[in-house]
Amino acid sequence: RDTLTSIVGKNLEPLYYRKGSYEGKNYTVDEAYYSYKNGVSNVRQRRFKKGKYINSSFDDKSCIYDMLSILAYARSLNIQNYKEGQKMYVPMATGKRVDVETLTYRGKKNIKAENDTTYRSLVFEVASNKDGKKLITFYITDDENHLPIRLDLYLNFGSAKAMLQSVRGYRHPLTSIVSR
Fold first, then answer.
1. Distance of alpha carbon 92 from alpha carbon 99, whole angstroms
2. Which of 35, 119, 120, 173 is deepest in the core (most CB within 10 A)?
3. Which parts of the chain are beta strand (E)?
4. What digits encode the pLDDT tens for the residues 147-170?
């Protein structure tokens, strides 16, 4: 019952994010509007909850991400020199504030998608810097495409998964296919 929308630019910079979610009887909408000027990232956030809006704004010299645009960032990484367990610290819009979260490269794993194809995948995890709680785990193909295969979201009220169903129009050969 939740809807996540993320729009990124040609250089994979976040432009807009929206999360609509039901928590019990309440419907909450978090929005983030991104802008960039003189090497500084700005995010204006707006949360609608229980009939009220809460607005906030943050600036950072680093790019500020959200729950989905962090996936685009990870897809752009060249992990050839990364070691399993290597951590990166990234600012992430949460709806009310910007927190620095931990993006960890967890290595490689074979993942079966909903199209009954098994892919050799790169595994990344985003966790809260405050309490270490997992927020997102995602799997992307270990080839030049870096296609998202599976996304596991750990939410306050449960979890959600998104799985690749089909793929076409990819730019590079799918060398990550283990079996069909």
1. 5
2. 119
3. 3-8, 14-23, 26-37, 40-49, 52-60, 87-93, 98-112, 118-127, 134-141, 148-155, 158-163, 177-179
4. 999 999 887 767 878 888 888 888
> Distance of CA 137 to CAs 35, 48, 59, 90, 115, Å?
27, 27, 26, 15, 20
Strand partners, 138: 124, 151
- Tens-place pLDDT, residues 60-89: 999 999 988 999 999 999 888 899 999 999
Instruction: Give CA–CA dist 110/163, Å, rounded.
Output: 14
CA angle centred on 153, ends 82 and 86, rounded to 5°? 15
Inter-CA distances, 37 with 32, 61, 85, 97, Å: 16, 10, 33, 20
Instruction: Tell me the residue type at 82.
Output: Y
